[in-house]
Design a protein that fits this description.
single chain; 363 residues; mainly alpha; Dna Ligase, domain 1; 3 domains; two-stranded antiparallel sheet; 6 strands; rod-shaped
């Protein structure tokens, strides 16, 4: 072997060794890169599984946010209702989605299978779930304000202030005596954080919708305005225990009005006295000075004595035609009435009822 051949062989061997080293380094780098990619993918999958993990709840839950609630209060509500898969992740997402400084009042529905981003988007958007507002069997504006405040963000005092705002009441087309007729007992979808003024304006629209052409025509045929029908229906409803008597009692009061007789309705006396718990009306009660005392004043009271139900209003609009002028509770104290055409017949019914009260010690 000559020298040149030996040198070439050495060079070839050295190159081979260097190539081998490079290949090993390249393999190690590829291996490391592969592991890193797998770790990144695993971390991404893990993060994705947390961020987009569906909330598992059996039924829809509601988050209530009023003016005093902060972002942390909202988070606490979600935690209490077990609708927060990861509080730490929620905070990170909320910051990323600029929610902590965008908290809006309202009632929000959190549903099964929603994710944390879904919840944040919902709360941030202010897209509320409406409340099904209901009210019935109420006598006074204080009762009305209390019942509504139980279902909305409004407190009863704030609502009462709105109800006593004479300019607003006048704008709605009522006065302090008649405003209660605007509240038609029904179910209304409203937003939980609605203001008192907006609620009253909404209920006025519902009142106008309730008094449609058909009902207005029936009232006109009776010689009454819608307001007068509400007043009479409120008296009928307070007088009657069983709804099937609504049309009969309405017909009786209408007969008395046509003849110019005083209504002499006991519920109006209770209203004037301010005590609906009275079981027995005494002579001293009949003397109370009030425009609502129909034993002293002819015609209808100046306003309803309660929130009249739709059934009472419709019963008054479709009165039974008869000749009755008098009524008295039955002596079996069943809550039903005996009706009479003549005063003599009525006197007999009244004596029987008074006797029943005496026997039971009701004074």
């Amino acid at each position: 072997m000559n020298l040149s051949t030996f040198v070439l062989k050495i060079q070839t061997t050295r190159q081979h060794m260097e190539d081998t080293k490079k290949n090993k380094k390249r393999g190690a780098l590829l291996w490391f890169t592969g592991i890193l990619v797998l770790l990144i993918i695993a971390a991404g999958v893990f993060a994705y599984s947390i961020i987009f993990k569906p909330i598992n709840i059996e039924e829809t839950i509601y988050i209530y946010i009023d003016q005093e609630k902060s972002y942390n209060d909202v988070v606490n509500q979600l935690k209490e209702k077990e609708a927060l898969p990861s509080e730490k992740t929620f905070h990170l997402l909320a910051e990323r989605m600029s929610y902590p400084n965008s908290v809006k009042t309202g009632r929000y529905a959190i549903e099964d299978d929603m994710t944390m981003p879904d919840v944040i988007r919902l709360l941030r958007s202010g897209k509320q779930s409406p409340v099904r507002l209901t009210f019935n069997n109420l006598r006074t504006m204080e009762n009305v304000a209390g019942r509504i405040s139980e279902q909305l963000m409004l407190d009863s005092l704030t609502l009462l202030i709105a109800l006593n705002d004479t300019s607003l009441v006048k704008e709605l087309g009522f006065n302090e005596h008649t405003l209660i007729s605007m509240f038609i007992p029904n179910t209304y979808e409203v937003y939980w954080d609605t203001s008192g003024d907006n609620l009253l304006k909404r209920l006025k629209k519902e009142y106008e919708r309730f008094w449609n052409e058909d009902r207005r025509k029936k009232a006109e045929n009776l010689g009454l305005t819608p307001l007068q029908v509400s007043v009479l229906a409120s008296v009928v409803e307070e007088e009657v225990t069983y709804a099937d008597e609504y049309p009969v009692v309405a017909g009786l009061y209408l007969n008395r009005l046509k003849k110019g007789m005083r209504l002499e309705a006991d519920p109006t006396v209770k209203f004037a006295v301010g005590d609906f718990t009275l079981r027995r009306i005494l002579f001293r009660h009949l003397e109370v000075e009030s425009p609502y005392n129909t034993y002293k004043y002819t015609g209808l009271p100046p306003g309803p004595i309660r929130v009249a139900s739709i059934r009472a209003i419709d019963g008054t609009l479709s009165p039974t035609e008869h000749g009755y002028l008098f009524m008295c509770a039955k002596d079996d104290l069943s809550g039903r009435h005996n009706f009479a055409v003549t005063h003599a017949e009525h006197a007999r019914n009244a004596r029987a009822y008074q006797r029943a009260l005496n026997e039971r010690g009701i004074y």
